[in-house]
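Can't paste images in this forum, so I'm doing it all in text. The chain is below; anyone willing to post the predicted structure tokens underneath?
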Amino acid sequence: MSKLIYIMGPSGSGKDSLMAEARLRLAAEAPVVFAHRYITRPADAGGENHVALSRAEFQLRLSRGLFALSWESHGFAYGIGREIDIWMESGLSVVVNGSRGALSAALQAYPELLPVLIDVPEHILRERLGARGREDAGEIEARLVRARMAVVEAPELVRFDNSGPLAERGQALAGLILETTISGRKS
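Text version of the structure:
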């Protein structure tokens, strides 16, 4: 049974690494695909593998209804393409890298989605943000404040601790994705 699995969490929580690890650990025959995001950020900016679009390209796609989900965050526009609907109609579960701020809209569009909040203790979040080298100290503090203030509530919300070793946590996420896909249950 196909499901939309909506991964979200604060910057630095390890979503990209965790999703990449889970993707590697899912068997090739598993009926699961990982959607890429369309972002108005250069492709070489670091972080996830995404489709880089100019603002004009993004707006054109948005105006033509080519995004299943879209939102703005940290000065960039993000979109998940309508192709996810085709994938789910064909029986595949789809994993997306979403946004806490866009969860409400995602639930309206896909009421049966499984929301997964990636969580790590603040000291680990601070460490990871510093290690990636994209933000200065002030920007890191601002992200930590946003992470503390963000309240994520949703039916069936799964809080997923990502403070352990990547291989272990990736295997656990792959297990959650596969269990959700096979059972058709939200959690």
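The CA atoms of residues 8 and 117 lie 5 Å apart. Strands lie at 4-8, 32-34, 37-39, 51-52, 67-73, 76-81, 93-97, 114-119, 158-161.
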